[in-house]
Amino acid sequence: MNGLSGNTWFTVAGIGLSETLLLSIALTGLFALLAYVLGRSLSASPGRLQVVAEAALTLMTEAVAEVVPPAAVPRVLPFIATLWLFILAANLLGLVPGLSAPTRDLSVTAALAVLVFLAVHVYGVRAAGWRRYLRHYLQPSPILLPFHLISELTRTLALAVRLFGNMMSLEMAALLVLLVAGFLVPVPLLLLHVIEALVQAYIFGMLALIYIGGALEAASTSESPSPKEPAT
Prior knowledge:
Key component of the proton channel; it plays a direct role in the translocation of protons across the membrane. Helix content is 71%, strand content 4%.
């Protein structure tokens, strides 16, 4: 994989289907199937899969509740949880022989960053309305509007490049170590990959959560009227 478009596995009607695209679609379908199965098999006496799913959901709910207001948790949690799970699974695909992690492809990380960019503004507009939400870009002075816009673009770019760079460098480092030391050190490399996959998924999701929390805070700030001066 070249890190930009991936290796083409199939060609349909002249359109190349890359490894990255097919793996991303497969992950999406797998999570949809798991959600359907778990939703249909919920029980008061849960099995192992339900216990693991409930424990993971509890951890993610607590993490989201630490950043956004309690009323916004049910709205924000599905998006952030999906990001965490998808990125973690995509990162771990690099451990499968013959496969590469979709997140070492810049097109995937850029798409995820654009989703975060759009979600931030969707949540902000839903919280306060588009007029009040957009008004916070003019605070504390309209002169700062260009800087606010540049900040929105640069942090989106940083999200995409950070995840892409970390996963690309991790797989390249693992390949170099295997070439130099052979297969004498597979277990430490596997552990390093698993830890890095967890860390990168957590960081990406937390940054997205912080950006959404900032949009909700800006919306609430712009929504509240300015205090009146006391009468003399």
